[in-house]
TrEMBL record:
It comes from Paenibacillus mellifer. The lineage of its organism: Bacteria, Bacillati, Bacillota, Bacilli, Bacillales. The modification 4-aspartylphosphate is found at residue 55. Keywords: Phosphoprotein. Residues 4-120 form the Response regulatory domain. This is Response regulator.
């Protein structure tokens, strides 16, 4: 999802110029503008934009007062101050109010683009760290689950943050991925660093769900379908993230590690052009995904 911006400035031409820079440079989407502090506060509280560009000198109140009011009301937007004033005391007040950067007037396209790209990078990093913190909090409830082995963390506990970062939690295939990893890691030295053929792995996993041979055979096909859908969803999530912010740490780490990067590039191009994949199916390397996940879990769990 592109970042959302709100511009609060009493100069209509400045608002228009800033909106053009933001949207022409692909920095995000301007979802609202306002010409005064009180109007801006109401709009920001209503729309909750990711980033606010706030003029320092507004007709009804200065931008610092508006930011202080928003903070007091629980606003979590990030702020960039815009002003002709270069008084050091005023600039210091602005930074103490919690702004990210200061853009000087008259507006310079290169400066605005440079500053806002830095703000976007900070936002992406902060969002990524928040997701990690959220993942860790959710895992706190798993501390008392039975361990996978003496002194070892449960496989499920180790794998959950990875699946969450890939956007696979909630996909029906995520249950199969967890079952496969528990199965493989439970076999210890019998597996070593290599996976059995996929069909055999599907069969072993299916045998943990079903007992009758005919049911196991049907479940093998169902597992493959669920797995392909889940990994295609993960690939799409990462490709969308890469289109929004190619330097996002989550994209940079997971995309080339878990997927063939050519498949990632193809998916990014499909999304950018609004095309559907051929035959409605995305291309994913299931064996690579499972092998990388298995090795990463082995390292984490000391298996």
């Amino acid at each position: 999802m592109p970042l959302s911006f709100c511009i609060v400035d009493d100069d209509a031409s400045a608002r228009k110029m800033l909106q053009h820079i933001i949207e022409d440079c692909g920095l995000g989407e301007v979802t609202g503008t306002a010409g005064g502090g009180a109007e801006g506060v109401r709009q920001i509280l209503s729309e909750s934009p990711d980033i606010v560009l706030m003029d320092l000198l507004l007709p009804d109140q200065d931008g610092i007062e508006a930011i202080d009011s928003l903070r007091a009301q629980g606003c979590s937007s990030r702020f960039v101050m815009i002003s002709q004033i270069e008084n050091q005391d005023m600039v210091g007040r602005a930074y103490r109010s919690g702004i990210e950067f200061f853009i000087r007037k008259p507006i310079n396209r290169f400066e605005v683009e440079t500053v806002l790209r830095k703000v976007n990078e900070r936002y992406a990093m902060s969002h990524y760290l928040d997701e990690i913190k959220s993942s860790l909090k959710k895992l706190e409830g798993l501390r008392n689950t039975p361990l996978a082995g003496p002194g070892k963390r449960p496989v499920r506990e180790a794998i959950q943050p990875i699946l969450m970062n890939l956007g696979l939690i909630g996909e029906s295939g995520s249950r199969d991925i967890i079952a496969m990893m528990e199965l493989l890691l439970g076999q210890g030295d019998e597996v070593g660093g290599n996976l059995p053929p996929l069909k055999e792995l599907y069969r072993q996993t299916a045998a943990t769900y079903k007992t009758r041979p005919e049911d196991i055979a049907k479940e093998v096909k169902a597992i493959e379908q669920r797995l392909r859908r889940a990994l295609t969803a993960g690939l799409t999530n990462l490709a969308s993230l890469g289109l929004t912010d190619y330097g996002n740490p989550r994209f940079e780490y997971y995309a080339p590690l878990y997927f063939d990067f050519e498949d990632v590039r193809l998916k990014m191009k499909e999304i950018e052009e609004g095309r559907e994949p051929v035959n409605g199916k995305g291309k994913v390397n299931i064996k690579k995904f499972l092998h990388v996940l298995f090795i990463e879990l082995q390292e984490q769990l000391g298996a």
